[in-house]
Every structure is written in C-alpha cells, then in structure tokens.
Amino acid sequence: MGLDSVEIVMGWEESFGISISDDEAVTLRTPSLAINLIANKLGVGEESQRPCLTLRAFHRLRHSIMSAASVTRESVRPEARLKALISTDRRTWDEVRAKCGMASLPNPGWLFLPRTVDDLTGWAVVHATKELKGPGESWTRSEIRNVVHAVVADVTGAKEFDDDDDFIHDIGID
Prior knowledge:
Blueprint: H1 3-16, H2 22-25, H3 31-42, H4 53-69, H5 82-85, H6 90-100, H7 117-127, H8 129-132, H9 141-156
Helix pairs in contact: 1-9, 3-9, 4-6, 4-7, 7-9
C-alpha cells in the first residue's frame, strides 16, 4: 500500500470518525468497496432524502461570506475567487469561520490553497465533514459516496472516476 492509499484511508477515518484496520484497507480496491465498508461501520440503513454535503457546505459558506464580507449573493458563485470576495485580514476570516460553524476552516494568506468558493466548498466536505452534519444525524450512502470521492480527489487530484474503478489500475493510486 503506497502513501496515497494510506492518506486516503486516514482521510476517511478522520471524516467519518471511524477506524479502518490494515486488513480492511488492503481489500479496498474500488470506491464502491470503500463506500460499502464505511456504510457498514456506520450502520447506514434506508436512504433518506436530504441535501448533499457539498450543497450544505456551499450554502453555509455563501451565507457566511455574504454576511462577513458584505458582498451580494450573486457574487458568491463557485468560480468566484476568494481573495476578490474576502479580505485576508484575520478578523473578517474569523467572522466567516464563526458564521458558517466550521471552526477548522484554514487561515487565509498568500499560500491559502482554496482559491475559489468551489475549492473551499470541496475542502469543507473533506476536512469539516462532522461540522456539516447535525448533532446525532445519521449518514446516508450518498453522503458517504460524496466524502469517499472528495477524499480521493483531495489526495490524488483525480476528478473523474466511477465507483467501480480500480484505485491502482484506473485511478492511478500507488
């Protein structure tokens, strides 16, 4: 198992608050296998309809950016550059963080990796997963799938892959 694989498994463990043994990790050859394992560990039952985590993250971030930076709703679009919307001063960013309820949002700066609202939304799905869920709210298979894909994309940069693609042969993970 290469370092990318280890980082992906650790990302899933962090996002879902679970532990994946080494024996389990080596059997995860596709996103589908990972989704099934995680769903079993979380005791996912019937699928309920609710907004996906990406949509939740985007709406929370849009609302907090509009409020903290005094910008219009129309200006907070996925492709909008963050430094054009939000001042990099710590006070404004602390206000965005407080209003969206994601205390773990990274500090801005010239090395700030999420450059667009879409980048920041993706970051939130991977790194602030628990903050996007309501207290005691159960997981759905579609939410698990969303996070499994987001972690793989975050670690590898791979954006286009299917649930049945092999991590090593189709996605290129070492």
